[in-house]
Amino acid sequence: MLKKERLLKIVEIVEQKEIVTVGELIEALNVSDMTIRRDLDELDKSGKLIRLHGGAQRLENSGEIELSRNQKKELHLAEKREVAKLAAAKIKAGDTIYIGAGTTLELIVDYVEQPDSLRVVTNSLPVFEAWQKTNAELILVGGNYRKHSGEFIGSLTIKVLEDLKFTKAFVGVNGVNNDSMMSANAEEGQAEALGLNNAQEKIVVMDKYKFNRNDFYNFYSLYNVDVLLTNSSVSPDTLEHYQTYTKIEK
């Protein structure tokens, strides 16, 4: 089978099954593990599917099945790190910052300079654990723990966040479509929205693959955020469109 035929067959299988493992593709195509993984990486980069740890997911289905935090960690890591660096550069001495849940937001700590008098508030357990290696004052907002995302949500979370004010808030999204900012869970979205509302500077942190994507819950409007941080390789057409809603930095 020629490479072009193999790539087309992989896309066909992924579209039929919605989520497929590397092992299933090896069996279907009778090629090596290395070949399948290389093909999946190529198809992911070309926007034909979404690469997962150990497999792939149909692109059109990405807003229908919520990926776990561990699955999301494997997606577009280079792009996430690029955006995390932009976010880290926004953090200054004396800030009190809110950081929401998300695998991109978890990476911010790897690039931030360690200023004095920094306070970090989060309802994400992975974000909290990542910042424990720093000298920042840490506040973990509790509530009902949602293992799928590693985030605390619910009425207890909201009650605490209502009384807190931030110089900056950093939130992620599962997708943006026009001015709508999307999350997979309503209670997660409500917490992110409150973090933004209580911040002097509202910052969205997202890789370029989140543009033009829907999800379950529309929790905020891009019109109301101060800046959206994304990848330098975002397409000119996408950049032009979304700059009508908010400032974009890349």
* Backbone CA Rg: 19 Å
What is the string of helix and strand elements?
HEHHEEHHEEHEEEHEEEHEEEHE
Q: State the total count of DSSP E strands.
A: 15
Poorly predicted runs are none
Helix content: 25-40%
Strand arrangement, major sheet: 6-5-4-9-12-14-15
Please state roughly what percent of the residues sit in beta strands, choosing from under 5%, 5-15%, 15-25%, 25-35%, 35-45% or over 45%. 15-25%
What would you call the shape?
Answer: elongated
**Cα distance spanning the termini:** 41 Å
Q: Please tell me the overall pLDDT.
A: 89
The secondary structure category is alpha/beta
> Number of DSSP helices?
9
Main β-sheet, in a few words? 7 strands, parallel
Structural notes for this entry:
The chain is of the alpha/beta class. It has helices spanning 3-17, 22-29, 33-45, 69-73, 77-88, 125-131, 155-162, 186-197, 236-242, and strands at 19-21, 49-52, 55-58, 96-99, 119-122, 137-140, 144-146, 151-153, 166-171, 175-177, 180-183, 199-205, 217-221, 227-229, 247-249. The strands form 4 sheets. A 7-stranded parallel beta sheet has the order 6-5-4-9-12-14-15, with helices on both faces. A 3-stranded antiparallel beta sheet has the order 1-3-2. Strands 10-11-13 form a 3-stranded antiparallel beta sheet, with helices on one face. α7 packs parallel to α8. The radius of gyration is 19 Å and the shape is elongated. The mean pLDDT is 89.
